[in-house]
Amino acid sequence: MKIALIGSSGQLGTDFRKVIPTDYLTDLNYPDFDITNRHAIQKLITHKNFEIVINTAAYNLVDRAEDYPNEALAVNCEGVKNLAYACKEQDIKLAHFSTDYVFGGDKNRHTPYTEKDKPAPVNKYGQSKLAGENVVQNFFKKYFLIRTSGLFGEAGSRGKGGNFVESIIRNAKKQENIKVKKQEIKVVDDQYLTPTYTLDLAKQVWKLLQTKYYGLYHITSEGECSWYEFAREVFRCLDSDIRIIPIKTSEYSLPAARPGYSVLENAELKRLGLNIMRSWQETIPDYLKEKGYI
User: Keyword set for this entry (predicted)?
Assistant: First the structure.
């Protein structure tokens, strides 16, 4: 099997390389491979005879996208269109990743979204990812379109300087280094999601890619929590006595709105009997061990 892995050095791409046999893979990374360059994509995909293209490349700077929406659209929509066009032309399967941030418009939502729910993004980033989804779904049939949420993995996100777990641990260590007497961090408690370990996600997607069950999928860890509850569980696993203070999103002055509730249900995976995702709580110790914290 010949597989193009776009973004192979990123957070999710790194874990795909642990799961998929290396002799199947061709690693493609920015800036050498740029999905916004249609000519380069067509040339490569035409000559390599790939069976699957896995696209983990994305513009995920949520707040910057509010001021520079065209940057987000260039990658999350136009770049995806380039890939979809080339894959359709060569009859190649495409796996593309989207986000829980395509939801959020329903302010009263308190139950997980399934693949049948209508998206309603509340920020420019979510709109750009939804535009990319529409391209994939309208262009051809041999696709795996995967929405996921709250990713954390060994490599971290280069664009975001790591991930949420790394951010709160870094914050705590900073206070230790300057010998703050009452160590504490503030975390929002009114945004609900499902933190998802990218190694688990990669294993689940690889299982799915070996089928012909094309279509839209929600793939996250099981369960839900607020960012505050997530942080609390991380520090519990670290046996840390740092104080976690819950605050409201309104206390932060951020350019982009965030969904208050964007929990996804793996409904299609379960319908097909393919769901192997663990609870988000189970994955935290594995991540902390992988990173050498415990």
Answer: NADP, Oxidoreductase
3-state SS of 173-205 is HHHHHCCCCCCEEEEECCCEECCEEHHHHHHHH
Strand, helix or coil at 150?
coil
Domain architecture of the chain: domains with CATH: 3-155+195-222+264-278 (3.40.50.720)
Query: Which amino acid, one-letter code, is at 291?
Result: K
CB 189 within 8 A of CB 226: yes
pTM, full prediction: 0.96
Q: Which ranges of the chain does DSSP label H, i.e. alpha helix?
A: 11-19, 38-48, 62-67, 69-73, 80-90, 124-139, 164-177, 198-209, 227-237, 267-272, 280-290
Q: Is 213 a catalytic residue?
A: no
Q: Which residue out of 59, 125, 143, 217 is catalytically annotated?
A: 125
pLDDT in tens, 201-257: 999 999 999 999 999 999 999 999 999 999 999 999 999 989 999 999 999 889 999
Taking alpha carbons only, the member of 99, 136, 139 closest to residue 119 is: 99
